[in-house]
Amino acid sequence: MSYAQAAEDLGVHPTQLREWVKKFADDPQHAFPGQGQMKPEQQEITRLRREVAKLKAERDILKKAAAYFAKESM
Question: Do 40 and 72 belong together in one domain?
Answer without folding.
Answer: yes
